[in-house]
Records
---
Amino acid sequence: MNYTCFDSIIGKIFLFGNNKEILKIFINNGSVCLELIKQCNRQDNLFIECKKQILEYLAGKRKNFDINIKINGSEFQTKVWNELLNIPYGTLKTYKDVAVNIGHPTASRAVGLAVHNNPLPIIIPCHRVIGSNGKLTGYAYGLELKQFLISLESNNKK
């Protein structure tokens, strides 16, 4: 697996992939192993394009991604992650909405776990999923970042 990293307004973003697809994105807004950073200099076209698109998104200039990705997970997780890809930019859905849409109306908690384990945050927009009460709930990278991404999209929806 190849990887690269770059700085952004939300912290250091690590991209992991092969020669054809992005497989994982990791956002680090805390301390990072310096040794890993020193090795983060891949300049493959896929990584260059993914970095460009993520930075455009974070600048409010991109609403959709056109990147080859590969989703690796259980059948249930894959259903959830594919459903998240259907949530339009600037739109929020509840965990219950997602559960109903994938044909498992009583699986809100399982949906929440799948959302938490999303390997491609930002590209697969897990930040667009909120609690049934309209409140922000769990986000692997913290509620502050989730609110930032929701606000970014809300402010640039038009």
Note: The longest strand covers residues 2-8.
---
Amino acid sequence: MANKKKKSTSASKSSGGARAAKPNRNAAPAKKGMSATAQWAIIIGIGVLIIGGLLFNGLRDGFDDGGEGVIASESFDLPDLTDDDNPDSRIRLADFEGTPTVVNFFASWCTACDEELPAFRETARALEGQVDFVFVNSNETGDWESMAERNDIFEFPLAKDIQGISRNGLYRDLGGTGSMPITAFYDAEGNLLQVAPVPFNEATLNTTLNNLGFLG
């Protein structure tokens, strides 16, 4: 607990005591500095931004050399959720060779996924034939189908990530640690270019696609 400031006792309480000195009215007012709490808040905020940027760039750049990106590409062999007539149907990265491919992961419990799916749907429709979009249900604990119906994405390749020991093989190989949403971007040759563990809207999605050269 902070100590309370004591009242000044410089002036004598008795009539015979010395009078307190008069304040200098011509003196410039003292400048109030930033509080220690505010300074620490700014320092911590800057630190969070720097660390967050390093983590994101590290996750993204870690795949640029073809190292872990190769693993992520090999894991892209998933059960097709839209082919009821053929339960053995698969969705593979090789199916999209020759076209840049965007893979968006979603789960019914992920509110950010629910909010961004319309942007992916509309962008996918606008870029049909130019960029392929694949939706992957991962880390699911509930009713993924109603979410897919609500966001009208059954017209696109729709897969379930159940590969690997963790049963979320592609998601894990892309650097996923349990949080959602996450989106991966592959070039026309199947090379993993970027992984974005952030939500998108139409503007930010199109900016990313443009920066990756998908809209050229």
Note: The first strand starts at residue 77 and ends at 79.
---
Amino acid sequence: MFNKIVTLRNSLVTLLFTSLVKITSVFKVSFILGSVMAFFSLTPMVQPLIGVWGGLFGSSALFIIGIALRLMMYGSISFILLAYHIPGLFASYALASRHWAVHVALPLLCMALFIVHPVGAAAFPYAFYWLIPVALYFAKKELFFFRALSSTFIAHGVGSVVWIWAQPMTSSAWLALIPVAFVERMVFALGMTLIYHTVCGVQKVISTKKQAMTGVAE
């Protein structure tokens, strides 16, 4: 019975986040340099949070549902879509799991895959950002902001690797993105933290009211 309740809860959380992701994708935050008409939206602040409440199951289900809906609506999957959503999948994994493979091995792998690319080798300082999740893992910072920061830089690493191997960009363009990426990821981490604490606050209020009503009923 307990397993059925957990599965139902995760399914409901997945459906809720699927709706939120579709809604927040409308609100554009910044242009993705190196693309033609691609923008970051509020989605990078919302999508990873399913890892908190939906776990690995919810994170995977949200990604699969998103891809399936795209296939049903348009009949194909574009590179931009994959480059946009795959990083979000790993960001949600980072919030769902504290495993070293996600927080240490994955960022280091991203660094290696970026630097072995000829363009990435000339822009190797850009990859130093992905040492942040590694440092935070060993520092064992429990404040949610640091968890969000680790998550968003893991997404940044995965997305950058996908982008550098699939889209033509110069090393100077990557180097120019270093300060931009810092501001962008800080905004995403702060946004995730704000949303997380807002949801937790609402849950606490609802729980308190339920307890109060239960006490009155008794």
Note: Residues 28 and 41 are 4 Å apart (CA to CA).
---
Amino acid sequence: MKEKIILITGGASGIGLATAKKVSIDNKVIIADCQNIDKNFIKSNFDNYENVYYFKCDISKKEEILNLKKYILDNFGKLDCLVCDAGIMPLPCGIDDITDENIDRTIDVNLKGTFKCLNILGNLIKETSKIGSIVNISSVDGIIGEPYGIIYSTTKAGIISLTKSFARYFKGDIRVNCVAPGLIDTPLTDSTGEDPSWTTDYSIIKRIGRPEEVADSIIYLLSNQSSYITGQVLVVDGGFTLK
């Protein structure tokens, strides 16, 4: 992974930020996020901050993704790799209490937004880089289901399906894979108020995961080390789904 142009949606925090920190050492990285971040944020979080760029983007809005595409073309001329990490889980989100507004917003960002990124930006990779790699971020909730995060889990299951569909669509020119993290120490996890022991007590590795550990799996799937892998889901959950 050297001298690539890499775009990471949701790259301002959590798993996206951890991935951006690692790949920015030897590559140019564009962080696309709905959060406002400035040069001070970039300088304080990245060792090689001159390789890091920021573009504010709400992936639920097609016009903003098209603006992001134009920004990439105007400033870099190509895109080599894409990490679709942007996602939300607005509360309340359980079967008994989720609101219509939260249903719509979760689907708009997590599922529709990921589809739009894969379609628009994946084709940008095909047009400008020819051979590239995409990694989508799902969740173990998309594999086992989660009644306390019902639509979040549904969208994460949909991302697994999108991964397989786009892997077939790009026919090997662009590899498309998926990482499904378990409970990871991120701002999104903190926002749910979940007691980590509810998950870690049932995991083989009895601790919460670190964003950097998921980032390593993402980078493996982006890199040529996984050149014969596409359409697959890599579960990074400390063995939770085996228990």
Note: The chain is about 45% helix and 15% strand.
